[in-house]
Amino acid sequence: MNTELFGRATDYARGVLSELTYDDLQRPTPCEGWDAGRVVLHLADVIDTLIGLLDTGTLVLPQTPRANDQGPLALMDERLTVLGHAFSVATDVTAVENAALAGAVELTTHGWDIGLARDRAHRIPESLAEDVLALVSAALDASARGENFASPVDVPSNSSASDRLVAFLGRVPRR
């Protein structure tokens, strides 16, 4: 199940990235102090972490985050391709499920961050947002938020799944 959702999240992120221009990389995102280029490089680091999890079964974050890469869009395309290969050859079922869950959340969330930098009306596709929200709401409690996710933001119960997901992850939905 998580691998199917991961595939949909990857397609969504690739679509958002395919619309991004190099000029867009300097646009602000909903993440305070982060422009789209910095989010793209962070996402490349996340992908490398997921590749490591699939290769070794251990989650190890990069010691030094990427910064000022001259080709972040090409880098992301290459890293996503390597990640797809890592999934195809991984044998540790638990690592695959964990990487798929984390990847679906990260690609969807940061896809929204980047998409919103380009278009204030950007939304995550509803079915993807609903499915990611169902998984992440069960897996991410207050103790697991750490420094990675702010406290949930209140939104009306009749809000779109896209708005409910990003609000759950501590972002303010844009209307």
TrEMBL record:
SUPFAM superfamilies, per the entry: DinB/YfiT-like putative metalloenzymes
Domain Mycothiol-dependent maleylpyruvate isomerase metal-binding, residue spans: 8-64
Molecular function GO terms recorded: metal ion binding
Name of the protein this chain belongs to: TIGR03086 family protein
Gene source species: Cryobacterium mannosilyticum
